[in-house]
Amino acid sequence: MMNYPLTLKSILERAKMLYSKKELVSRDYSGTFRYDYGRFYERVCRLANVLEDLGVNRGARVATLAWNTHRHLELYFAIPCLGAVLHTLNLRLFQDQLIYIINHAEDTIIFVDRDLLPLLEAVKDKLKTVKGFVIMTDSQELPDTSLSPVYSYEQMLAEASPQYNFPSDLDEWSTAAMCYTTATTGEPKGVAYTHRGIFLHCFSCLSADMMGLSERDTVMAVVPMFHANAWGMPYTAAWIGAKQVFPGARPDPKILCQLIQDEKVTVTAGVPTIWMGILEVFEKQAYDFSSVKSFICGGSAVPLSLMKAFDEKLGIPILHAYGMTETTPLVTLSRTKSYMDQWTVEEQYRVRVKQGLVAPGLEIKIIGENGEDLPHDGKIMGELIVRGPWIAGEYYKNPQKSAECMKGGWLHTNDIATIDDEGYIAICDRTKDLIKSGGEWISSVDLENTIMAHPGVAEAAVIAMPHEKWDERPMACVVPRPEFRESLGEEDILNFLDGKVAKWMMPDRVLFIEEIPKTSVGKFNKKELRQKYL
Ligand code: AMP
Fold it and tell me: Does residue 429's CB lie within 6 angstroms of at least one atom of ligand 1?
């Protein structure tokens, strides 16, 4: 076989060659922006020239602080295809983390959306390597800013040449993109994605049993483009020329519902909180979602109640997926097998609510405390470990964390899982979140999901409470739905759980709170909950 480099250039060139008429839609500051892959390619060429003029050379880190927009997609391609590294900055990070990440990655230029300028202005004096800021906006005027030097994205693109020859000699093992993930302790950890890793990840996403995207799809990634390449959707969709919809700055559930209806979105992806919000809006106003084939949901466990509500109220399945920043990110996705069509609906739910089957191309195992392989019986819990061509082999410039998490050629996920005899993985918890009571594990995720099935509960998070006798006991922090705020009590929750979970797993305390603190990527921040309420 030929020694053909697996680089993002081939995705970009294919989109241009075959799909120049296919549409891209982006919610911009002053309206909807529409163009096609043909004009997109031309702008990517202009952008590559701009990057060269700004002194960006091979291997240089170029950061983005941006929403899901067409400009972000242009950066997704122009930066890696000329040989530099796209570093997507998480706009929900604390200032100290942002400073650490930018300095650690040694970012040279930052492309920033107009409304996110204050985030950079607040930290600018602490940035050691940044030589300039490019502001992205659709208005003629640049906003006032204390950042310097600043450039206008649109003006620079307008003045740049529309021709660019992307290099053909890029090494497939070179870094195309980077993303930092929050550590449970210490500073954030950087993950470097190679061209090869992203390329092969796209292949796996394309398979019909995974995301199964095709040219006929209209794809809207709601998961932020700063989080693990928006689960690979922008790259995968461009490769097969699917229409893409970008929800822009601060998308709320109403905006998303409107976009799904107007643009006839067929596949979209995001964390459970997003779909809970969509459901709430949908219940008040019926949108036309007849185009949608599936809602891909991951990043946190999907509550069964949410899955059922989507089936019953919208008639559209939620597909449960699992992955990590370190895994590019797709590791598993849950679809029932053909012979399961004969199973009862409840039996099928028991499969669908699991995190699913491992993606083609990856290997997974669950291991015990001494590293021994554990059986696939759907009951025994162990740490999930993963390896494969799009799994990070190390953390960027962090040998200590690499040694802890990438032992023996496997990524140790810190997630505790079972694997059943059909091969379906069920994540029971993250190591730090398991509750050990009298030597036995209680899954806080299971408890949370069961509590969240109560009609009066908006959200619930379960944390471990220290206990003299049992070591730890579960405590449930519950946010009632507004209409249940006055009436919902501890007894209601416990009565609801009675018969659904083993007696010894019942929470010792139910605490009613206003809201559950979230991490920068919208997950329950249990660290903060523990600090606040224990
Ligand atoms: P991140 O790197 O921020 O995407 O976080 C990855 C972690 O989120 C995983 O290690 C899991 O603990 C959790 N996670 C991701 N997807 C799921 C899922 N479908 N169910 C349960 N936990 C998940």
Answer: no
Please tell me the distance from the alpha carbon of residue 14 to that of residue 417, in angstroms, as a whole number.
39
Q: Residues with Cβ < 8 Å from 312, sequence gap 6 or more?
A: none
The type of residue at 95 is Q
Q: Is the CB of 334 under 6 A from ligand 1?
A: no
DSSP conformational letter for 445: H
Percent of the chain with pLDDT over 70: 97
Confidence check: pLDDT of 183 > 70: no
Longest dimension (CA), the chain: 72
Ligand 1: nearest atom to the Cα of 320: 19
Neighbours of 289 (CB within 10 A): 18
- Torsion angle of alpha carbons 268, 271, 276, 278, nearest 10°? -30
Please check the confidence at residue 415 and state whether its pLDDT lies above 70. Answer: yes
Residue pair 8/176 in contact (Cβ under 8 Å)? The answer is yes
Distance CA 349, CA 311 (A): 11
Predicted confidence at residue 192, as pLDDT, reads: 98
**CA atoms of 107 and 127, how far apart (whole Å):** 9
% of the chain residues with pLDDT over 90 = 82
Catalytic residues, which ones?
A: 181, 326, 436, 441
- The single-letter code of the amino acid at 98 is L
**Ligand 1 centroid, distance to 51 Cα (angstroms):** 34
β-partners of residue 62 are: 86, 109
Query: Would you state the pLDDT for residue 92?
Result: 79
Are 61 and 85 a contacting pair, CB within 8 Å? yes
**Kind of pairing, strands 61-65 and 107-113?**
parallel
Pocket of ligand 1 contains residue 324 by CB under 6 Å = yes
pLDDT at position 393 over 90 = yes
Residue 400's identity, in one-letter code, is: Q
Collapsing DSSP states into helix, strand and coil, what is residue 150?
Answer: strand
Question: Which tens digits make up the pLDDT trace of 162-178?
Answer: 999 999 999 999 999 99
Is the shortest distance between the CB of 415 and ligand 1 below 6 Å?
A: yes
**What pLDDT digit, counting tens, does each position of 56-106 carry?**
999 999 999 999 999 999 999 999 999 999 999 998 777 888 999 999 999
Atom 15 (ligand 1) nearest CA: 299
CATH 3.90.78.10 is held by the domain 433-534? no
HSE-up of 55 (CA within 13 Å, CB side)?
8
